[in-house]
Input
Amino acid sequence: MGTLLPGLIKASYFLAALLFIVGLKRMSSPRTARTGILWAGVGMLVAVAATFMLPGLHNRALMLTAIVLGTSAAWWSGRRVAMTAMPQMVALYNGMGGGAAAAIGLAELIAAAAWSNGHPGQCAFAAASTAACLAPSATVLAYVGLFIGAVSFAGSLIAFAKLQGWMDRRFVFAGQRALNGVILLAALALGAWTLATGFAAGAQVPLLAIVVFAVLALLLGLLMTLPIGGADMPVVISLYNAFTGLAVAFEGYVLQNEAMIIAGMVVGAAGTLLTQLMARAMNRSLGNVLFGSFGAAGGAAQTIAGAQKPIEAADAAVMMAYAERVAIVPGYGMAVAQAQHKVWEFAQALIARGVKVRFAIHPVAGRMPGHMNVLLAEAGVPYDLIADMDDINPEFPTTDVVLVIGANDVVNPVARTDPSSPIYGMPILDVASAKNVIVIKRGKGTGFAGIENALFYADNARMLYGDGQAAVASLVAELKAVDG
Amino acid sequence: MGTLLPGLIKASYFLAALLFIVGLKRMSSPRTARTGILWAGVGMLVAVAATFMLPGLHNRALMLTAIVLGTSAAWWSGRRVAMTAMPQMVALYNGMGGGAAAAIGLAELIAAAAWSNGHPGQCAFAAASTAACLAPSATVLAYVGLFIGAVSFAGSLIAFAKLQGWMDRRFVFAGQRALNGVILLAALALGAWTLATGFAAGAQVPLLAIVVFAVLALLLGLLMTLPIGGADMPVVISLYNAFTGLAVAFEGYVLQNEAMIIAGMVVGAAGTLLTQLMARAMNRSLGNVLFGSFGAAGGAAQTIAGAQKPIEAADAAVMMAYAERVAIVPGYGMAVAQAQHKVWEFAQALIARGVKVRFAIHPVAGRMPGHMNVLLAEAGVPYDLIADMDDINPEFPTTDVVLVIGANDVVNPVARTDPSSPIYGMPILDVASAKNVIVIKRGKGTGFAGIENALFYADNARMLYGDGQAAVASLVAELKAVDG
Amino acid sequence: MIDGFLALYIFMLAAFTGYEIIARVPVILHTPLMSGSNFVHGIVVIGAMVALGHAQTPLEQAIGFAGVLLGAGNAAGGYVVTERMLDMFKASKNKERG
Amino acid sequence: MIDGFLALYIFMLAAFTGYEIIARVPVILHTPLMSGSNFVHGIVVIGAMVALGHAQTPLEQAIGFAGVLLGAGNAAGGYVVTERMLDMFKASKNKERG
Ligand SMILES: NC(=O)c1ccc[n+]([C@@H]2O[C@H](COP(=O)([O-])OP(=O)(O)OC[C@H]3O[C@@H](n4cnc5c(N)ncnc54)[C@H](OP(=O)(O)O)[C@@H]3O)[C@@H](O)[C@H]2O)c1
Ligand SMILES: NC(=O)c1ccc[n+]([C@@H]2O[C@H](COP(=O)([O-])OP(=O)(O)OC[C@H]3O[C@@H](n4cnc5c(N)ncnc54)[C@H](OP(=O)(O)O)[C@@H]3O)[C@@H](O)[C@H]2O)c1
Output
């Protein structure tokens, strides 16, 4: 039993790491995605159960309490939140993970420093668990993990608050970036100083220094995230997701726990790639998201010749009722209006009439990658009616009517024509090449990039003004009227 | 310097492993493939140089001699061999790798057993390098690696001989599989016995037993491969490639060398997948390739109503000269006839006349995956004129003429219609749906699967009999005549 | 003991694995996948359990407790949210079609 | 020392890495890639060098010598053949087109 239990625990951790990877792999295909999260979930249960079995742990009652509290609160909030609030929930849970990683780093460093202070000359830093000396690499990574985790914690909470609508403004003030730089440097200096002190034989490491280090990291996460606009948050959340992964991997190294190292590193790499993909799809650099003042430059007043030509719901409904092919392009406005159910109802009515309907999804429509897909899936749209940009762009010329619902930037031809535009170079859905375009939006509001859209002034475009949900509801009603 | 050198060597191995992975990754895209092999090559040089620096190695002169001899012989043969002989060269070099892995296992086990025999009661098996006891897991893996490596060595050499044409017949005799089973069991028993003896305190391991074990593995590799037909060899080579990878990984574990473990394992996994992909593309199971008697069952005489309708080269040339779209489907016969240069010459002549020409490649056309691509690339066909099966199948109905050159099974409609056919279920190039089909082959020979092809009797198909190269050459000549 | 170079190898291989897996994800799954990977780093909860299990002073206990609480929240919340999103990706077989 | 479980982790991660990399290879590159992975396991030559470097008896020396010879052949031959094949995949920019 003396060697069986540790072996079993190690095997459980191995199994957990394997299940995480297989689970993520399965999540990368729509057919297997649903079982992917199940597999990963089993891995998590196995790992937690194994950890309970670890010999020599104290405070098991506290542990159980914390797990029950944390799990039930998160489970409850995750169950009842609306589908559209998913981005901020991901931010919240991600922040919690970052906080947990930071807590591990803090606890280990404090315990290690306290032990070393009490046993001068023996160790620079000792691991709390074994009282064995921590390797220098482990000490450094404990600091790095604490720092990254704390930034991710504070930053994610701000992101949550912004997306939840608790914090509408961007907090920008002069010298903000300089202040961030100062905080970063101060944290680095403090960290280096405690490390040097720790490694100097016999010197005492003030525990307060470690706490201050953590506070500086929290402050940096806060200040870094405050000036970023709410619409940029998904990229930032994805970045913090990668941060948390790295922090977990580093603290896993400190604890010599391979499952944490592997899971954290896999997420760190995956999250970094996902962040890049998101930023690239929006045709921006990550630096621009974090430090840029987006919209300020692009907002320069452009005026477009011509006028927007309105259309009545009845006419629009007739046009689509007798079309052969209709493509529906949803955008952020559909999410705001929560119009996805109505849209699918309308599409089904068209399909019942024999119209070929497809949904055309731009990769960065909405405010998260795949935002539209999730909403349409929620409404019950089968995913084989949903076409990617690359698949559907060649089909627009043979499409009779394109119905644009609350999309703006992703169909803006300026991205192709005007090199001075902030979205220049972003690939767009080329709806203007269709025979007719009907655009549903509330008025003359601009989209995320804050620029005018030449499409709305095009000869073959008609505007159907109104809130997304109401407008589509009237289309449904008018379509019924067409039949009888 | 006492700790610097080992650190540098470890760092070099890390770098090598990294470069191998990055290199393989780059090889997975046509744009970066050529630099991929370069990166991997740099990794190899770094690793070899680092190993020379390893402290405490003897026989450095022998080492250098072996490297120079091995490298120059392989380099010379690899440089001068014809492009079409690539499959057997891969088999040969792969076999050498398997042999090297087996040699490591043999050397380590013999040295370890000799040491343990000389120091009774101290160790089951000791590592030759350090005289430290080998972990039981390492001893077992040394045996497994030796076994797999030897099978791969012997099997690959047979594959080489067969593809080289030195061994045309399939050697089949009654009780062959039973004999293989007996050899496998004998090897297992012998291995288990030496292990048990080694681990029994004080018992002596006869070195001869280890040698016999290796000989049994060689014998098995030989006998396993002899009955397999030459055309199945690519799948078998790919399998042995994966075997060698695994053997290298296991011997790497014995030597505690992470670069070998990682490179070997990466290749082991990659090779296994590649083997599966190949077997699946041919619509066969791996078991069927290794143990099946392919062709025997499928050869049942089928007769197809109707007659093959010949065509003259002149008529065929005119037909294509005035076509709008022509698709060229090469197969194994083009490789046999070495007709790829002529085919490209002909295609260029058509293109010069304004005909839209594309090459349609079936994944298992020829005798290796990508066989046709390599040949066409050799002839200088730009790879964007080359279309995959999935891309081009929908285009056949709008294609005026399909020119089939030495392809048979991959265009056989029987794969869709006759469930009793050995190729039933294999996806095919649907050339019959084109307006006209011209087939170049020498006569009524069947293809790899040995079955009749209904396409050749179809109403819109015409046969241009003759050796592939000669037939295309006459097409080129007739095309010139068309112009005047 | 995971020494320096072994850790580097594991870091590197895990990073490649994560990168390669995500590189093949279709856009349609980006949001659930961000959430799924968010769940996976919920494994941090086991580290927090170890930290709490070794905590001696009240300060260390408080930090450890907070760590487990947050880590459990990460894991549980990440799971629920991901599962809910993925549940919506139904195949279209049992739906009427155009 | 790479102990049992650490080795398992490395085996597993390396296997995933290899699998995922190949899963994305287009058919057009299958043959060169088979050859390229054949080259990569030519790293066996360094193991053979170690084995030869520790060989004591003539038998061990002979086996080690054969191992290095074969391993070097694997590496050098695999490189040349792969490079020759890949050299043929020229982009079509500088070619005349239809
Ligand atoms: N997906 C991502 O990952 C992501 C992340 C961050 C940023 N972004 C950026 O977000 C933008 C997405 O483009 P998009 O075309 O989807 O959206 P958009 O450009 O933001 O445009 C949304 C449009 O919807 C209209 N709208 C708002 N509420 C509405 C309602 N209740 N009913 C009807 N219409 C309503 C607005 O016009 P009115 O005010 O006139 O109604 C607005 O023009 C891109 O610039 C992208 O780069 C994307
Ligand atoms: N690619 C791979 O990875 C792989 C590996 C192993 C097996 N296979 C199998 O190989 C087959 C490949 O199909 P395939 O259509 O490429 O070839 P195939 O079915 O083997 O047919 C080749 C045809 O070429 C003709 N031919 C032979 N020499 C010729 C010459 N000098 N000039 C003109 N024609 C000549 C033959 O007919 P005549 O004798 O009448 O001329 C024969 O019908 C599939 O069954 C596949 O499963 C593929």
